[in-house]
Every structure is written in C-alpha cells, then in structure tokens.
C-alpha cells in the first residue's frame, strides 16, 4: 500500500509493506512457569539406584527452600496408594511445627540428615524423606495427609513436602556445593548404566 506525504507542493510516495500486527513480533514458544522463573533447582541423587529415593531442592529467589520428590523418584514408577506421615519418631511430629514472627521463632531446627516425613506405600517398604538442608522448618504440606496423591500429581507445586528457611549464608553455600544442578542430574541419569530410565 503506497503512503503519500505532501509538504510545500512536493509529493513523496513511499512504497512500504505493512505487516499484520501478529506477524510484527516473535512470540515466545512457551512462557516459563512460576517454578522456572523463581526457583533454582538442585537435586539429591540417591546412591542406591535400586530404590532411587531422589529429591529436589527448589531455592526460591527469597531464599526459602521447597523440598519435594524428584521426577525420577522410585515412588513415581509404582502403582497403588500410599500415605504420608509427618510423625517421624514417637516424640517428633513435623506437622506440630509452630512458627511465629520474622525470625521463625518456635520452628523445629533441621540438619541435612533429619527426616521430614515417612511415605508408606500400600505395597513395598516405607521410606523417609530427608531435609537435605540445615535450617528451620517453616511449614509442612498438611494437605498431603488428606490427599497424598498430590505428591505424584504436582510434585513441585501443590505436592511439595516442606518449606525450610536455610541457615544463611552457610546453608545456601553448602546446598549449592553439595547437590547437583538440573543439567548434572539428568546427565548422570542418561549415562548411568544402572539407572532405570
């Protein structure tokens, strides 16, 4: 479509192709999810590849840590029902955690080896989910007590196990030095001949 412009008896004609607005910019093929935008992911790879009790540690930009099961956890390959129990010992119930204020007073102190919960499959042996991070337990996902299948449906969303406030800055530094990045985790799985992929 030609465009014309007149100024002081001079006429200028410009040939320009006018694109449709939809074609004038490049669309992003897929908008990143909230987890991809705000969480940095680290993986714990269980050395016992027969059970594959792998876990994922999602570090939010506000430094809170979300603990859940990694996509290649052995639970995801099993059928059947299971339960989640936050009573890890007769004297320690993680669901009774009571946190107050900015300093998270009253929170249960956790070591990396501390058990967060026990998952009890209908068939097979039960297993513990570890904290993996030194810090304070902020919250456990009590909805898993009523709907444990959310752990399988939304492992990095509504099916998270717990939120932890790591000891700063040494807790985050230890986490980043100890665990695998997403790329390292999947590369190890790809080339590990004992992995059941």
Automatic annotation (TrEMBL):
Gene3D superfamilies hit by this protein: 2.40.50.100
As recorded in UniProt, coiled-coil segments are: none
* Top-level division of the source organism's lineage: Eukaryota
GO MF annotation, one: actin filament binding
Q: Which GO terms describe its cellular component?
A: dendrite; filopodium tip; lamellipodium; nucleus
Biological process (GO), any one: regulation of actin filament polymerization
The entry's protein name is: F54F2.7
Look up and give the organism this protein is from.
Caligus clemensi (Sea louse)
Name of the gene this protein is made from: YMA7
């Amino acid at each position: 479509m030609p465009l014309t412009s007149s100024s002081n008896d001079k006429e200028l004609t410009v040939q320009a192709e006018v694109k449709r607005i939809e074609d004038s910019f490049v669309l992003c093929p897929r908008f990143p999810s909230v987890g991809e935008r705000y969480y940095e992911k680290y993986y714990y790879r269980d050395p016992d590849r027969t059970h594959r009790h792998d876990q994922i540690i999602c570090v939010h930009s506000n430094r809170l840590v979300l603990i859940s099961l990694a996509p290649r956890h052995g639970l995801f390959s099993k059928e059947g029902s299971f339960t989640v129990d936050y009573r890890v010992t007769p004297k320690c119930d993680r669901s009774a955690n009571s946190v107050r204020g900015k300093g998270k007073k009253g929170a249960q102190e956790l070591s990396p080896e501390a058990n967060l919960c026990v998952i009890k499959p209908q068939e097979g042996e039960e297993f513990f989910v570890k904290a993996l991070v030194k810090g304070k337990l902020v919250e456990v996902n009590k909805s898993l007590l009523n709907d444990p299948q959310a752990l399988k449906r939304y492992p990095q969303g509504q099916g998270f196990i717990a939120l932890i406030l790591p000891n700063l800055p040494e807790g985050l530094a230890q986490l980043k030095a100890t665990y695998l990045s997403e790329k390292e985790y999947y590369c190890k799985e790809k080339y590990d001949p004992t992995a059941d992929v």
